[in-house]
Amino acid sequence: MINPLSNFTKKKIGGLILIFVIIIAFGFGGFGGGFNTGNQNNIAKINNTNISTQDFMDYLNQSGLTQQVIKENIDKNVIEELLSSLVSSTLLNLEIKDLNLVISDKIIAETLKKNKNFLDENGNFQRTLYEKFLLTNSMSAAMYEIKLKNNVLQRELFTYISGGAKSPKFLTDKHFLEKNRKLYIEFIKLNKFYKKADKFTDQEIKMFIDDNSEKLKQDYIDFSYVILTPKNLLGIDDFNQAFFDVIDEIDNKISKNVDFKTITNELDIDVITINDYINLENKETIENKIYNSRKDNIEILEDNGTFIFYQIDSVIQKLPNLNDERFVKQITNLLFQKEKFEFNKDILSQLDKNEFNQASFDKLGGGEVEKIQLNSIKDINKFENNSVKILYTLPINTFTLIADREDNIFVAKVIKFEDTKISQDSNILNAIANEASAENRNGILKSYDYLLNNKYEVIVNEKTLDRVKNYFK
Question: Which positions carry the signal peptide feature in this UniProt record (predicted)?
Fold first, then answer.
């Protein structure tokens, strides 16, 4: 047997706390169709614990994913993601063993009997529902209960690590003050500094087109289509099985490479033909839907209860005509966005280099500086959520760029803040305490994630991983 370490590549498996959620999300899904392999080479190693190819195949069998689903997503790293989940689950089990966490059979039985999938309408556990679930998912009771035990233990591990992170009163008070203080800012809307789209000259438009001609080339298509309804296919107004049988028959003919003209002649429906078409306005029209689906030369599209049967006759890539007002409008919008980006980028560069100061702010504002009071970190009436969070992290007399929900950009200055009197309402206090405790737990779990990444060395055998991937191709 080859040395399992000879072809290993070292990899760190990050985000274990997030992966834990993925593991739980797999739940207890059915078997995917039975993946088999006699290859016992190790696909991964965690410190001194090996994960064999057979272990991984067993894990795939229990994932609920069919071979077809895995095959279709092989280029989207589905195998790597599943291996990461198995590695994370194994790592957590090693941590459970290291911490000597145990769970009694009584707790497992109680957890099993609380599963809503096995309860009748009166909330009582039904053995028949449990056995039906096992049969449907090709699982034995012992196998299911082992999986259940592992999941409960993993939850207990995270409770063990962070469950006691109750925020003390002084931190709860600090949390309340930081999130609920009133914040006073000055701001300048930058829209007035951008050159308006209708102010660009013909020369500027032509120069932009010349400089970006290859990128601006677009597909012009010739196509034909018919609209399929019960009325024009069967002479009736209502959809019925006969109508869908005709749609299926057209689909079958398409798969057998019967051409569009032959099919439409048999249907005896008038064909609409469009030449030299381009979608410049992206409106909800039949023509634009066909244009946006042009990668398929012949296809049936469903459109609000009707079906569009189309064929793309030709596709020519070329630069739109400058006499087309829609194209000119598109170019002026691009120029506007470019000017806007460059202006904002210049302000941001000054902020990063600490070159933007009060004099810069006053000069930019020109006496038109606006003021606003934010009542808490959740006050998003003026600015969008992330911008408000940024403002609440800044020291007094600092500047930043922020945005509103319409993507308008502002340069803002934090003037001062006022602490709000801590509420004595018990419901509010409890909510604040829970928020503060949640933040503490998140901090602890992030630290624990870092600890795990340093405590365990995860190594993946790339050659074995490639062999597994090739199995599904």
Answer: none
- CATH of 8-163+453-472, picked from 3.10.180, 1.10.3230, 1.10.4030, 2.40.10, is 1.10.4030
Q: Convert the pLDDT of each residue in 58-110 to its tens digit.
A: 888 777 777 888 888 888 888 888 888 888 788 878 877 887 777 778 888 88
Tell me the C-alpha distance between 213 and 217, whole Å.
Answer: 6
Please identify, in words, the CATH class of the domain defined by 182-197+327-418: alpha beta
Residue 165 to residue 438: CA distance in whole angstroms: 8
List the beta bridge partners of residue 227: 308
pLDDT digits (tens, 9 = 90+) for 287-326: 999 998 888 789 888 877 678 999 999 999 989 888 888 8
Q: What is the pLDDT of residues 407-439, one digit of tens each?
A: 899 999 999 988 776 666 656 666 666 665 556
Using alpha carbons only, what angle is made at residue 442 by residues 437 and 443, rounded to the nearest 5 degrees?
95
CA–CA dist 17, 23 (Å, integer)? 10
Q: What are the boundaries of each domain within the chain? A: 8-163+453-472, 182-197+327-418, 218-318
The mean pLDDT value for 10-17 works out to 40
Q: How far is CA 21 from the centre of its chain?
A: 15
* pLDDT single digits (tens) 147-165: 777 777 777 776 666 555 5
